[in-house]
Design brief:
Layout: H1 33-36, H2 46-59
Domain Carrier: 42-79
GO biological process, one term: amino acid activation for nonribosomal peptide biosynthetic process
Protein name: Non-ribosomal peptide synthase:amino acid adenylation
Amino acid sequence: PDYMVPGYFVFIDSMPLTANGKLDRRALPKPDVARSQQGYVAPRSAFEQRLAALWEQVLHVERVGLNDNFFALGGHSLL
């Protein structure tokens, strides 16, 4: 299901644990959404604009640039 597909990936050295050895979800870092928006290059040709519009629709993202990665934006082979 779509709600189980990660929207962002955050790489960390180790998982924060509680005193009981369980995952401490509150201690996990928040995704840096601003970082994923850096380096935006707008689609130029009609084909690029159409492809970007399709990605935006399928991936439910605000904008897609030329340098964006389908999988980094949450895409996968089942879409």
